[in-house]
Amino acid sequence: MNGQYNEPKLIVMLGVHPHSKHHGGVYEVIEIYRRGGLFARWPIVYIGTVASGGSLTKIRIAAAALWSYLRVLSTRRVTLVHVHTASRASFWRKSVFMLIALAARRKVILHLHGAEFATFYTHECGRLRQWLIRFVLDRVDSVVVLSSQWKTLISEIAPTANVSKIFNPVPAPALHGVRRLDNVLLFLGRFGQRKGVFDLLEALTAIRVRFPGIKLWCGGDGDREAVQTRVRELGLCDCVEVLGWVSGREKEQVLAEATIYVAPSHAEGLPMGVLEAMAAGAPIVATTAGGIPDAVEDGVEGFLVAPLDTDALADRIIRLLENPELRSAFAAAASRKAREQFGIETVLARVEALYASLGALPRNPPTRNHGVNEGGEARKGAPA
Predict the structure, then answer these.
(1) pTM for the whole structure
(2) Closest CA to 120 of 166, 81, 96, 154
(3) Any residues with CB less than 8 A from the CB of 373 and at least 6 apart, and which?
(4) Which neighbouring-strand residues pair with 241?
């Protein structure tokens, strides 16, 4: 080959459409990949398969995505398909793309973000659909999950699946030197039962007895009207501000100013809000749902409670509000862990090692050893 490095074959990545009104955590992860240089270093073609909006919009986006996907696959220049999916309709929609790739003998990574995948598989699918889920999990080349708990769960569902754990990445905070306010709680997430916002409102009724000046900022999308209705029912209008969807500079600002970040989720993958709050140096009060214990160790970066335990949630928040020294210790530990375990370079090293293990080639010859084994797990002695 006379020292020449041939142009590598393509990697097709499937996820949320860039023009979606509310992107959510999955697209946020993909954008961090992009900003971290993954798309520049690897020959990735991104196709958005879903967007927020009405049924016609979703059908149009899905049809256009399928057409683009079939067209790029037909060129025979694709070596790997990296599919980001959640549960339910997202999984079934992406399964069509994955099965097409497998039929075309392309390597497939199924990157599972579905916080309620266990409920979806166990309680919402009959035997046939469970068999179809196992069929996909067993035949893709790698199933990527976000936490230790999810790795165990997927391995129990599909014991022969090749499951690896790759944490979500979190960027370093953009704001520095912003003073944290006193007695301000922050919630970021979709408004509904799964993220536990109604549990937090319930807990707030007890917290305000001890701290009458307490404030709660609620940022997110979803059923905003239900949250506002519950705020009125509980008589919390004077201490709860429903911000709506928060992003960009506004998100950086609230993460930098909030006294405590609260994540009272019932089910989770590895929530970006928790990771972003840790990177911003906020102490955490959260539940043990999903991958949260991989990020927050109880009594180190914050406090953990069982999902739905509103009394414990209120107690831990009050304990932190009463103890600024403990808040400072939690904040320092959270910032350190976010930097060391969830930093962009650390996480992308695992993604790139997984690509290489499946035969994909970067745009230019590799120049560094990421210290990662096949499957995205760190080698002994490598950063964990």
Answers:
(1) 0.87
(2) 154
(3) 353, 379
(4) 217
